[in-house]
Each structure stands twice: as structure tokens, then as C-alpha cells.
Amino acid sequence: MQNIREQLQRYYEYTTDYLKRRFAGSEQNARTAVVGIVGLSALLIGLYFQLGYGHHIRLGVGGIDGSYYYFYLRSLFFDGDLNFSNEVATLPLELRQSNLTPDGRPGNVWSVGPAILWTPFFFIAHAATLLTDGLADGYSQLYRSIIYTANALYATAGLVLLALFLRRQVSARAAFASTVAMLLCTPLTHYVWPFAADSHSLSLFAAALYLYVLDRFGVGIGAGLALGLVFLVRWQDGLYGLLAMAISLQQFSTIVRGRSSVEAQSQSNPRPSQAKSLSVWFLKNILLLLGFFAAISPQMFAWNDLYGSPFTLPQGDGFMRWSDPQILPLLFSTQHGLFSWHPVLLIGTLGLFLHKRRAPALVLASALLLLVQIYVNACVADWFAGWSFGNRRFISMLPIFALGLGAAFDWLAALRSGGRAARFALIALALLAVWNQLFLYQYNLSLIAQADRLTWREMTVDKFRLKAVREAHGATLLASYSIVEGYARPQTAQLLRDAFQKNPYHRYLQWPAGYFCSTGPTDFPDDCEGQLTRWRAAQPQDVMALWSRIAYRHRLAVAATEKNMAADSTARDPMREAISQSLAELKEFEARYAEERQLIAMIEARLKDGLDPAAAPEYAAAMKLRLRLVYTNLAVADNGLDFYYLPQLREALAQ
């Protein structure tokens, strides 16, 4: 017993001494950084609530991605299987995916990692629901809200881990500044408090945890388990294994390359033999692989159960276009371009090589990882990431960008005028943060398209005239509402005039203006054809911009026929040519809604029928149906803007 007590005492003294030496002079800095990051995240979420973003919490688990991530957890807990038939039945028709398993069950092309990370919070919600005699079915508000909130907590934890990792690579000030920049100047700022629970804040957490464990403890079972978690959350992020491989190869090279610099050690502390070092190195790598494969086994079991194989690509062959990478658009397009939307990431990319002297293996592996990720994301069919604030698929790469940004900050601070350069860098980061938050305001209030290409005006000028843009958006909603509810044309025309005066380039004007121009007098707007043509040029992938242009031209052809200006129907030739050209353009992309496919089918039918002028009412009915859908979607995504304006509309129309 005495011997055990003495060993415990020696272990305690050794541990205490190690901690004192390890954190001497940095404990206070680390604590301040952690408190600062947590406090800033909380303040940011509070600000988002004030700006109206917080209404999304009522959705919690919603949309396509969030729902299918959650189905793993809900189905396994309540049904004990991976048959998602009853879960999918709760979704609106437009959110249900057509992917089926070989035995006819609803498939699931999303990963299991988010469900695993949400599990503790799910159990808390389930226990609280049972204690309060609530409806414990996995769908009630408490289940949805707590999982939604879990994402914000994981994002904050990921930022803390990122700061701790960076603190071991760059100065304390650079580590803190880079971490804050990742929160305020990148796509992450939206996914801390997103539209619905998804995987992106979780991918940041998993990547930051992996880098911290790898840097702190080296190659081993801990790094393997963390790498497995990275893979579980987003499969393509398994490429992070390149970092462990680079560090492992560097260690191997050190062992086998000569020992001249260290062989002259004292006999009291001899250096282990090369064979023993190689054995330890080999064991650590075996443990890393064991940890990785143990961690990813849930995904393998899920794939095997659903698709009959533990290795598959559930999205199908058409999901990846390996021979047609859209690299330049991915990086610089106005449609969620990585660097055009978030310039701070370009600085982080260039700054990464400034860290090469201090950690060459880490930097080279990180650069390779980033290049491979760019290529993979550029090969995805929707390289712009669909409905996304910036390119959300790079959120897992933020630790790499942050490392480069921190290295760039330290490089500036080391210059002769380092103090002034560092202050300039902080001011630049503050301006980029303001720029990004204005972008987020535009995005969350639907003042810009959330999935399509933007104009440079929307990306630049409109950020500094948000009041006018928002008023134009409200006027556009009112015009849509007026058309849907069947109010008189003079009142609708006045609403459209107001919208045009406030912002003639507002993208949502195309729907009410196109409908108005195609179904009545063409005296408003004066340049309807020109406006619709500009919309078509600015939004080549927008089916409704195309439809508005066709509908307007059809209206002119009908008017010409009614006035007997072309008894031989030659007036229809330009219309037929325009529709033929538009149909060719339509083949380049698929309509996103069933209603749009019906419109295209109607256009094709009318083309074959010789553009019978009697079809005008059918066009008008189809446009009105689409307007109702558009208005409904905008109202849902508009943070209550319609509730602010609609009373004014009703009051004006009642007079």
C-alpha cells in the first residue's frame, strides 16, 4: 500500500509540474480567447434574433438536408430500423427524394454523422418530453429546437478547438483574430444559426477536433477516431487523412534518415534504437487505422442495410462530373464563388505558404488537401451548392484557411512597421466582417437570390442601399399578392410602378411584371420587353425569367392577330422563332418545380398547335398559379416582411 501511495504521489507531482511548464504564460491568454469566442458567438446569435433571423428556430429540423440527416436518428430510436417510409411521409411532396433502395425503401443519400452528434441532445429532449407528458414522437417542437440549438453549440465548440489548435501554430493574437474572422467573414456566420439543422457547423467541429488531437497527441488512435468522425459528418472530408499521412511520413523519414545529430546522448538517457522507434511508429499508425475504421463503421452498416454494400455513392453516377470540373466558377463566380463571396478565404489561402518554414509537412499536406477539395467540389453537378450562403461545402476547410490567415497576420506583425501593419490588418478584417454581415442580411431577407447567380450590383451597390432594396422587395410582394388575390389592374399597376421606382433591377419583379404584361394593356411598364430581356440576360438559369419573356411576346402576337394586322399569321413567326430559341435554352437545365415543368410542356404544346391566340387564358392561369407559389415561398422566407406590408395594402385597397 505504501508503495502504491508513493507512486501516486510521484505521478501527481509529475503531472502538476508538466501542466505548470506547459501553460506557463499562456493559461490566461487561452482562457481569455475561449471566453471571448464563446461570448462573441452568443452576441452574434442575439444580434441575429434582433434582425429577424431567429424565426427559423420554429423549423428546427426542416428542409431536405436537415430532415434526412435526422431520419437516421428518429427511425432507429422509434422504429429500430432504417426504413424511412413513415418519416418521408411527413415531408411536403416537393421535399421528398426519389432515391430508392434496391428493395424499394426510401433511400437516404446523406451521412449518419450528424445523427450521431445530435444523439445526446435528442435524449435530453425525449426525457424532457416524457417528464412533461408531451407528445414523444420525435416530431414535436422540443425535439426540433434542441437539435437546431445543438448545431450552434457545436459551432461554438469548433471555434474554441480551432483557436486552441492555432495557438500552437501561430501567436495568441493571430490565433484569436483568425478564429473570429472565420466566424464573422465566412459562410459559417450563416450556419451558426441557419435556416434548418444541417451538417456544416458539425463539419467545422469535427475538423477542428481532428486537427487539435492530431497536433496535440500526434498519430494514434485518438487521431483515427477524430478522423472517422470527420468522415461520418461529410464523407469527402475524409481527405483530411492526408494531414495524418504527411505527419506520419515525416516521422518515418526522421527515424530512417541518420541519427548523427542525436546519437551523442549520455548513457544515462540513451536514445531508443531505430528498430524500436520504427515499431512504435508502426503501432501508432495501426492504431490510427483501427480508430478510423471503428469510427466509420456506422456509415458502413447504414450503406450495407440500405444499398446492399458498405461502399457506395448513393447519389448515383451523375452526381460527380470528374471530367468537367467548374474550378473558375467555383472560386470566382457571383453564384456562391468561394473567393468572390468571401475574400478573406483568398488571404488565408495565400498566407498558408507563409507557415511553411515552421511546419512544412502540415502546410504542404494542407495545400494538397485544399487543392483536392477544390477539384472535388468543382466536379459536383451543383458546384455552387444549391441554396447556400457562399459555398457551404468549404466550411470544413475553415481551419486550413484560418491557419493561413494567422500565418499572414504574424508575417505582417514581424515587419519593420509590424505594429502599424497589424492594426491595418485588423481594420481590414473588421471591414470584411461588416461586408459579410450585410451579405447575410440580404440573403436571409431574400433581397438576393439564394441559389442563382447574382449581379455585381446586388453584390456591391445594393449592400449600401438596403432600405430602398427592402422597400422594393416589399412592393414586389404586394404586387404579387394583388395579382394572386385578383385586385383591379390599376391598383396592381401602381404597386408595380412603386416597385420599379424603388429598384428597377429587383429580380422578383419579373414574375408580377411578366404576368401583368402578358395579360393586359402594354402601357406599363413602358419598356416591358427590354426589362424582361435584361432579366433573362442576368438570370440565364431562371425558368420564370424565360417564361415572362415568352408570355410577353405571346401577348404581342395575340394583340397583332386580334387587330387583323397579320391575317396570314406571319405575325406569329417572330413569336415561333423566339419560343424555339427558348426551348433550346431550356434543354440546358431542368425545371426545379413540377409547375415549371408543366409550363414548359404547355409552351411546347402551343408551339406545335401554331400558337393559337385562344391559349392566352391558359398562359395567364399558369402564371397566376406560379405567382401564388412564388408569393407563398417569399412570404415564408421573408422574416415577416409581408406581415409588415400587407396591412398597408389592405388599407389602401379598402379606400
Number of strands: 0
Note the run of SSEs as H and E.
HHHHHHHHHHHHHHHHHHHHHHHHHHHH
Structural class: mainly alpha
Round the Cα radius of gyration to an integer and report it.
29 Å
Low-confidence stretches: 18-25, 260-268, 539-572, 582-596, 607-616, 625-655
Q: Quick one: biggest sheet? A: none
Give the helix level as a range of percent. Answer: 55-70%
Rounded to the nearest angstrom, the distance between the terminal CA atoms is: 94 Å
Explain what this protein looks like in three dimensions:
- There is one protein chain.
- This protein is an all-alpha fold and 655 residues long.
- It contains 28 helices and no strands.
- Helix 10 (221-233) runs parallel beside helix 12 (274-307), helix 20 crosses helix 27 (616-636) and helix 24 runs antiparallel to helix 25 (572-586).
- It is globular and about 90 Å long.
Task: Compile the SSE list and pairings.
Blueprint: H1 2-23, H2 27-50, H3 63-78, H4 85-88, H5 113-131, H6 141-167, H7 172-184, H8 188-191, H9 200-217, H10 221-233, H11 241-256, H12 274-307, H13 327-332, H14 338-341, H15 344-351, H16 360-379, H17 398-413, H18 418-444, H19 456-459, H20 466-484, H21 489-502, H22 510-519, H23 528-538, H24 543-562, H25 572-586, H26 594-608, H27 616-636, H28 641-654
Helix pairs in contact: 2-6, 2-7, 3-5, 5-6, 6-7, 6-9, 7-17, 9-10, 10-12, 11-12, 11-16, 15-17, 17-18, 20-21, 20-27, 20-28, 22-23, 22-24, 22-27, 23-24, 24-25, 25-26, 26-27
